[in-house]
Amino acid sequence: MSPAARRHAPCPIPVRARSLVWDLGSGVWDLGSGSCTFVNVVAEALVWRTVKNPRPRAQPYAFLCRLRKRLTCLFPWNLALLQATHNGRSDCSKALWPAYSTSRHSLGIYFAVSTTCRYHVPSELGNTKALRPAIEQAVAQVVLKQPFMRVGITGEDSKQPNFVHVAVIDLSAQIRWLEPIEVASADAMLEKQLAVQLGTRWPDLDTRPPWKVTAVPVNARDGHLTALDIVYTFHHAIGDGTSSAIFHKQLLEALSKPAPVPSLSSAGLLTLSEPAVLPPPQEELIKFSISWPFFLRTLWKAFGPDFLKAKPNPVPWTGNHVNLANSFQTNVCLFTLPAATSSALLAAARANATTLTPLYHALALLSFARRLPATTAPKFVHGSSISARRLVDPAVLDTSSQMAVLVTSLIHPDTAAMTSQFRARHGSDLDSLVWQAASAIATSFHDKIASLPRDDVTGLLKWVGDWHAYLRQADGKPHDWTWEVSNLGALKAVGDNGWGITRAVFAQSALMSGPAMTLNLAGVVGGEISGTMTCRRRL
C-alpha cells in the first residue's frame, strides 16, 4: 500500500470491540421473552469544541404572540415551575424543562436518571462502620452547594408545578446502605438495583428532595473491602446527566478534603434555614432564535392532520407502538470496555477523523441491522442528546459546577441505504462501512452544534401550555426513535488522600414514549468505558 493510500485507509476496529458488536448470536434483545444480554455496541464520550454561533435570524415573535392568544382555548399557557421561597411556595418565573419532566413522571412515562461511580477507598476507611459518617458528611457538603438538591416538588399532576423549600433533609433516609457484595457479583446486582430505582416513582415529593444515594461496599473474596459503589439517582426535573457527573465530582472533592457541616446533626438531619435560589431555566439562560421555515415545519409536524402528512418510506422500525396503559418497567443491561480497549477505540476514532460517539451509533446501527430482518426493520431512526451548557454565558451561571437541566437533541441522517449495505456486506468490508456511517453521523453533530442556538426545538417548547395533554397524544402511535444515545463523558479519576474514581456507569429510565430504547455511556479519564441499554420488557 502506498503512503498516500495508507494515510486514507480506515483504521481497524480493535478485535474485542468488533467481537462485541458483530457476534451474531442471541442478539441485543430477545424481542419475545424480553431476556437481556450485553449490549453489543461501544462508544466514548462526545467532546466538541465550542463553536461560534451564527447571527440569529429575524424571529416571528409578534405572530407567535397572536397565535398564543388564539390557541388559549386548546392550551392554557401555564408554564411556571417556580423558585422556592421562605413560605414553601414560589414567585413567578417561567421554567420549561421541569414542567416537562414533572409531567412525564406524573404520567408514568419516565422516572429517573442515575450515575454510579466506583470509588477507591483509603486503607484507613476499610470498613463500613468508618465509611458511613464520611459519606454522609460528604453528601451534606454537596447538598449545600447545589440548590436543586434542596427542593421538593408540588403540583406535579397540574399544569403549574412548583419547587418548594425543604427545611430539613433526613440524610439517613436519602442515603441507603446495602450489604457488601463480592466484586464478581457487583454488575449483576447493579443491573437489578438500577432497574428498580429507575422504574420507581418518587414518593413524598412535596417534603423530600427527589434524589437518593445508594452505597454498596465491594469486597474481594476474602471479605476485604476493595471499593465502594455509590449510586446517585434523581428526578430529571432537578438535573440533567451532566448534573450527576457534577455530583460525583464534588463528592470526590468532599471525600478528599472533608469539612465540618455545622447544620448536620448526629442523627443525620441537615437543616436548611434559607430557601434555595435556583438557577434560571434553560429558556432564560439561552437565547434561542427561530426562523420562519423552522417554526412552520415544527408547527405542522406537531398539529397538522396525519392524513395530509407524507408517510415515511420505508417506515422505520421503532418497536411496538406506545401504550401508556402498560405497567412501567425498566430493563437494564450493562457492559464494560476495559481501559486498553477504550484507548484503542479512541485512537481508531481519531485516525478516522471522528469520535467514539458517532462510532457507537454506527456500531449500534450495524448490530440492529444484522439482527432484525429487512421485512421487519427496513431502516431505523436514531438520535442523540446534546448538552446545551456550552451556550450559557459563564458570567450568568457556572455550568461546570452547578446542577441544572440544559439539554437538547438531534436526529441523525436517514439510515435506509446504510442499513441495506450493512446487511449485504460481510467480513473486512464492514470496517470501511462502519467508518463511513460514523463520518456521516459526526457531520450531523458538527452541523447541529454549529447551528445552535438557532432553529432548535427547545426554543419552541415553551409554547406548550399543557404538558400532560401534549404527552398523552403519543399514546397508540409509533415511538419517535429506535434508540437515543446519551453520553455523560469522562469523569475525573483521581482525588486526594487515597480517594479516586475507577469506574462510571450512566443510566436512565426506559421511556414509555419517545425513543424505544436508550443507550447510555460514561467513562473515567484514562480508564474504562461503561454502557447501559434501557428499554421496556417487550419492544
From TrEMBL:
GO molecular function: N-acetyltransferase activity
Listed InterPro entries: Alcohol_O-acetyltransferase, Atf2/Sli1-like, CAT-like_dom_sf
Highest taxon above the source species: Eukaryota
Pfam families per record: AATase (PF07247)
Record protein name field: Alcohol acetyltransferase
Organism in which the protein naturally occurs: Verticillium alfalfae (strain VaMs.102 / ATCC MYA-4576 / FGSC 10136)
